[in-house]
Amino acid sequence: MAFWTGTWPVIATVVLMRGLFFAAFPSASSSGRVDAGDMLMMDRFHQWQATHNRSYLSAEERLHRFEVYRNNVEYIEATNRRGDLTYELGENQFADLTQEEFLARYTSYNAYDDRRDNNDTSAITTTAGGGGYAADLWSSGDGDDSLDAAPPPSVDWRAKGAVTPPKSQGSQCSSCWAFVTVATIETVNWIKTGKLVSLSEQQLVDCDKYDGGCNLGSYHRGYKWVIENGGLTTEAAYPYKAVRGACDRAKSARHAAKIRGQGAIPPRNEVVMKKAVAGQPVAVAIEVGSGMQFYKSGVYSGPCGTRLAHAVTVVGYGTDHSTKVKYWIVKNSWGRAWGEGGFVRMRRDVGGPGICGITLDVAYPY
Fold first, then answer.
1. What average pLDDT does range 76-99 have in this prediction?
2. How many other C-beta atoms can be found within 10 angstroms of the C-beta atom of residue 23?
3. Which residues, 6+ apart, have CB-to-CB distance to 39 below 8 Å?
4. pTM of the full predicted structure?
5. DSSP code for 334
6. DSSP letters along 262-297, please?
7. Beta strands 282-286 and 295-300: pairing type?
């Protein structure tokens, strides 16, 4: 009895996985020969499941996810073998998702209607009066701080202690727009007060009447709501749940940080964008380019287009010491296990709309 009690779960698992394996590779069962590469890939998948605590409801779903995983691993390794890229891909928590599934779960940006209706996109625009730190620092006619002044060669707001660690929006709530709204307000609050306070994305998801919570949104509208609400509360007071619920008005009325307006910079102008980022981190929208799902390190250089579908925060810029490639430092909302600790460096000075459309919709709070 002791033998069966201790050993049966292992035997059952082996039998089940052998059945799954031969279902996946029927030629192996008929020929009696199993490709060693297939067995190694299955073992690799099991290790990936254990690492990421991933389980599936049925044997059929597990088999399907194995096939997706294998295709993704082959894509990752083929991309890295090219040898002509400035970035590297790697297995991560998204390796069992197709590109279509990943985009549906983790992108959620919705263009700002009022911005599209504004025909004058040639100059910095603001609302609620006055200028933000980016505008104050680089507004024309301000002597040494004019748009003609050269910004520093590199800026990293993380090194200043002005950026909270990357957070995770989760797979069930498409709320990247809320994370960017919060990230930029967190830093401008630090600039104003010297205190770095983690603010509440859930408050925006639940209470912002202009956006869709877990279903599409815009940092422009997010800023608008925060201004009208009088500010944001802390993440500790109103923690993230990755689902839209009823607005807790009592919590929402407690303000840990306030903004009085928002600004935007001209599209297709990396020079002005660089100067703005020297003044404060900015909100941008991008297309999630090929392979970005598995970005691991380096300077991402595409390929990607300009179909803006994901909101991120630019928290600095610089130049790679080894490749001399210029880049933006971008804070994401896919957790710290993705990319360079939750950040991605994206190629800078590429002209036009910028890498993945990064210059087409740039905004900041003040």
1. 96
2. 12
3. 21
4. 0.85
5. B
6. EEE--TT-HHHHHHHHHHS-EEEEE---TTGGGEEE
7. unpaired
